[in-house]
Model the fold of this input.
Amino acid sequence: MGYVDGEFLLPFWDDHLFLACLKTDLAQQYADSSYLLVPFVQVLDSPAECVCGPLNLGQIHTCVKKLDQLLKANPKLKIALCVEDKSDLLINAAFVLGCYLVIIEHQEPNDVWSEVSCLDSITDGFHDPNSNPDCDFCLSLLDCWTAIAQARSLGWLDRLDIREYAHYANPLEGDLHIVIPDELVLLQGPVALDDGADFRDDGLRR
Done:
């Protein structure tokens, strides 16, 4: 990986998929070559400020599907998923590329990590988004890819109804996430409202 003044172009999968952190002038240089530079937020299809921690299954599904479409539509180009700077989006962009390799190409998480382990020096994993000082655990990219590989091997991803998942994962519809199909879900706990109302919309959350 070339890493100069915060810029790099890291191959994730041979000459097919790359992770890029490039400034405008250098990005133009690559855009004029055999690379197709794709902003991560374009693949994510969600506002950058809504990204906190690892992406949920709905977001993973969307990103992996779009990457697959890009690769099939541009077989002669090198697809580089780009972030503008070394921001919080960087680790999620790397996460998405690894998910593509695990889900679509059926690569083993350890094999993916062995190719991009240099990311360990510029990312520090996923931390609990809460400010509670007691929440000091960290999930690495390898941890997350291993979980995705396990879900794939057990057939959970094939059983996923993505429309239903996206509906209930919406904070306005319960913020509910399936962890183990038919066995375990996670959701926000209920909050007592002062006026006794059944619900109240507060910005983007109910």
Q: What stands out?
A: Confidence is low (pLDDT under 50) at residues 1-5.
